[in-house]
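The authors assume throughout that readers already know how a fold can be written as discrete tokens. The format is easy to grasp once an entry is in front of the reader. For illustration, here is how one protein appears when written out as sequence plus structure tokens:
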Amino acid sequence: MKKLSFILLFFSFSFSFSQTYSHIYENIKKIPSRTYSDVYDLYKDIVKDNYTDAEKVYAFARYITENVQYGKRARIPINTINSREGVCQDYSELFIELCKIANIENNYISGDGRNSSSDIGFYNSNHSWNIVKVNGEYQIFDLTWAAGGVLGNKFIKDFNPFYFNAKPELFILNHFPDDEKWQLLSNPITKNQYINQPTYDQSIYNLSLKKGIVRDNNFQISFNSDSDFHSASIFKWSLNEYGSVSGIDIPLIKNGNSYKLNISESITGAYRYEISLWSYIKEAESSSESISSSIKFKLITPNFRVSKPISYDKKDPWGLIESYHYIFHSLDFIFFKQINPNTSVIDFKKIKYYSSLNKSLSNWYGDYKKYYVNMRGEEIYYPIDNFRVILTNTSNGYMFKEITRQTLRIGKSGYGVKEIQQALGLNATGIFDNELEIAVKKFQTQNNLKADGIVGKMTYNILGM
């Protein structure tokens, strides 16, 4: 789910798309609020006799974005309708159910959705959207992001028409499908390209900045935009720092619709950068009112080195995430013993998979997802690359137990995937693609395993991993 930070600039085609169906929206607003016994009853309220398939699709999507707010998981479409809240899966599933009644193809798409510089360098299949076939052509709809956003813990209704029939070449800036065929691009990008690209608004094009992780402290960014930007500000955080910061104005060089920015970072470190580009609201009565577009990336100064965490909390499951990233990046056994004083481990060689985890963190620059997973009993794990660092909760806090490999399947990426490719004699790209799935299925068949293309415990064992 997205978080609101600035008002996005919408393209005129998005407004035109909405204006074309303005009569449908007027009908949507007239539908009374009531409890439904099944989805078909809602369908009858939404659809008029003369609606074309395109109008039906717009009507379904507009009803959902108008009436469903982001909140608790509803689980089934009828609950989404009556509770008027749900998560991205609920938005997508209700949309599919309404299209199914109308005999319109609607595909559920899972994948990564991002709008923060924190997401750069990571892939997380944490979002869902839809691709609908209308008049023989596929159209992209993200009803969750079209409905509004979350500010703090509160849903803010703020319809964004960009995510209705979104252009694939713009949608790919912040959405990547687990099944890459649903990019709908004539020249699809790879998952690595997506993970490592900067995040920027759709009003910006021809951006010279191609990498979302910049290992430099003095460089220039150029781009084009049809928006009339008058100034620029930089907002900067240390990698895992959050909260409000004050922006610093920087010179914006303008020549027609071409812009340039010179970036210079004098303090050694690893940062999240957000450049806000300000333009006046043309419709505003006062020309002083501005809205912004943004360019977001991470900046690592060339001489930066990751240092040992200053503090940690063994009693808090969140409190050791950074520490274990650092330990297996630096192989700092003294620090490992410091937070595990009663461990029987005498050196890292006694820990299975420590070397693979260390190699997966070879280019680590201090970034991590603040995330853990509860297991059965008193155990938790931190997902790091394609591995799990498992801890046990004791009277002295969380203590290290073991490292295990994650179950891997198509759509995953990381060093663990690379190791599987090497074991099967494939090009080690680190991306679990169709070629690797076919090779895994063949290997499983040859070894009398279920040929599902999923690498779990039994497949790892026979691979000798």
Observations:
- The radius of gyration is 25 Å.
